Amino acid sequence: MHCTRKVTDHIYWVGGSDRRLALFENIFPIKRGVSYNAYVVMDEKTVLLDTADSSISRQFFENLTHVLDGRTLDYLIVNHMEPDHCALIEELLLRYPDLTLIGNAKTFQMMKQFFDFDVDAHATVVKEGDTFSSGEHVFHFVMAPMVHWPEAMVTYEEKTKILFSADGFGTFGALNGNIFADEVDFDRDWLDDARRYYTNIVGKYGMQVQNLLKKAAGLDIAMICPLHGPIWREDLGYILDKYNTWSSYAPEDQAVMIAYASMYGNTENAANVLAGILADKGVKKIVVYDVSNTDVSELISEAFRCSHIVLAAPTYNGGIYPKMENFLADMKALNVQKRKVAFLENGTWAATSGKQMAEQVAALKEMTVISDTLTVKSALKEDQYASLEELADKIVASME
Ligand code: FEO
Predict the structure, then answer these.
(1) Of 255, 248, 236, 250, which is closest to residue 186 (Cα–Cα)?
(2) Domains identified in the chain, total number
């Protein structure tokens, strides 16, 4: 059975949600599932904007054929060639053999890599600034390289003032009937997943996202239709502001993230004591994470949100405890920067993890170390309470 929704009088959402997939891209846990959005424009010519992941192909084709209501599909605009959106192109061509595919030069280069059908026989190549009319609707093509792949583009439709934004402004999370951000409590129920999606999928490419935001600022946008998660038709400033913060690597909150690794609870104890002292000193926004049982995608998301990061870890095989090392590697890969940091190390005979964590953080941009490394030898001792208070004072003093 079809499951579609109207976006405007002539534009329909024909996507679907997957609540079975455990790991998006086989790496990111998605407890709330994920949606793959696609949109059909019913005009003199029919136009589909992107397809979907193969996991929802049945729902997608039921939706598409319902909306087309016996008409053929004339055009497919391919904004992004990652398989979560392009997997169904070949099947579309089997159903609609006269279909014209619209994409840029890189789109078709990738399409030839993923598929074996005769791409050139169907391709119409567009570049930055080109337009295409389906009748009443006029589509403008805007290149958005590295948001999230090199071929990515977004499409602006001038009649409805809709920005079809590809991965941009997307989020993890299945859609539950409501497809508009104003139909849900986005700040309460979606923001954490939107941040986790952004920071882990596109976090590395802040400059490219800033470039896209500058291009978007020149458009009169009434609605943002992303390929994942809710559509924005009200309060666009909310999500544009979040994207501006995330892509400029500015902290979203004046908050302290304490990320600890602990084998037997001693480093954990130090983390908890520090959190308690911070609370005593009036800090309200404190989050404490055990890196061994928190997915690194959540740690990255929180590192983007919080202004202060305290890293606490034992020394392990003469190096940094592996789960913490993995977090540090991901921080580098995703370009985490502009944070205030402090280190707490533990070691029973040769504590060197603090020095090594500091070396890794030094490779990140504009990180400020606000205190000397605090060393725990096996377990925290009563006479170290003052050192933790001193660290807490420095954190408080450096909060805005
Ligand atoms: Fe949702 Fe980069 O694909």
Answers:
(1) 236
(2) 2
